[in-house]
Design goal:
Number of domains: 2
Largest sheet: 4 strands, mixed
Order of helices and strands: EHHHEHHEEHHHHH
Strand content: 5-15%
Number of strands: 4
Length: 192
C-alpha cells in the first residue's frame, strides 16, 4: 500500500487451509524463537496481540482503530509511512503474514515455517535449533500424553494459547506441544 493506512480498518482472517492446518499460532514458542528475529519485536507483538483479538471476535473479523491499537502497544500512530508502528505493520505484509484488502488487512491466524532464506540470516545456534526442532520424530506416546494434559487444561477453562507454554514447561517437546495446541485451537475455532 503506497499511502498510510486509514485510522480505522477492518481486520479479517487470511484463510489458507495448508498453513492453517500446519502452521504456528502467532503466540507460540516457535514464533517467539524463529519468526521474532525475522519480523522484529514490534511486528511480532502486533501479530500476537491481534491473535488474541481474533479469539474474542466473530469469525468475520473486527474493526481496529489504529491510533488506539498503536497506543496499547506503547507506540504512536502517524499518517506517514516512516513511523515505527506503520513500519512494523508493513513487515507483516513483507513476510507474507498479512495482506491488504479493500477496507483493511487480512492476517494469518497461523504462521508458516520460517523460510530457509530467512533462517540463513539467523545465528548458527538458532539455525541448528530450528533444524533439530523440525527433524525431531514424535512418538505416539508423547502425543497421547500431551493430548491428555491439554484436554484437561481446556476442560478446566485454560485458553488454547496457554496450553503450549504449559506443555513445554512440563517437558513435552516443542513440536508435540505445538501440534497438540494447534489441534485444540482449530477445534475451538470450529466450535464458534
Amino acid at each position: 500500500m503506497d499511502t498510510a493506512p486509514a485510522a480505522t480498518i477492518t481486520v479479517t482472517a487470511w484463510v489458507d487451509p495448508l498453513v492453517d492446518d500446519n502452521g504456528h499460532d502467532p503466540r507460540s514458542r516457535y514464533v517467539d524463537e524463529y519468526w521474532a528475529p525475522v519480523l522484529g519485536p514490534t511486528a511480532t507483538l502486533i501479530g500476537r496481540t491481534l491473535a488474541y483479538r481474533f479469539d474474542d471476535a466473530n469469525r468475520g473479523g473486527f474493526e481496529l482503530d489504529l491510533n488506539d491499537f498503536a497506543r496499547t502497544l506503547g507506540l504512536s500512530f502517524s499518517s506517514g509511512r516512516n513511523g515505527p508502528f506503520t513500519k512494523a505493520w508493513q513487515r507483516l505484509n513483507m513476510f507474507g503474514l498479512a495482506h491488504d484488502t479493500a477496507d483493511g488487512r487480512a492476517l494469518r491466524r497461523s504462521y508458516p515455517d520460517v523460510a530457509f532464506r530467512h533462517l540463513q540470516r539467523l545465528p548458527d545456534s538458532v539455525q541448528h535449533a530450528h533444524t533439530t526442532l523440525t527433524a525431531t520424530p514424535v512418538s505416539l506416546e508423547q502425543l497421547e500424553r500431551a493430548h491428555t494434559i491439554a484436554a484437561a487444561m481446556i476442560a478446566a477453562g485454560d485458553a488454547p494459547s496457554a496450553v503450549e507454554h504449559q506443555l513445554g514447561a512440563i517437558g513435552i517437546s516443542a513440536p508435540v506441544a505445538a501440534a497438540v495446541t494447534a489441534n485444540f485451537a482449530a477445534l475451538a475455532q470450529g466450535n464458534r
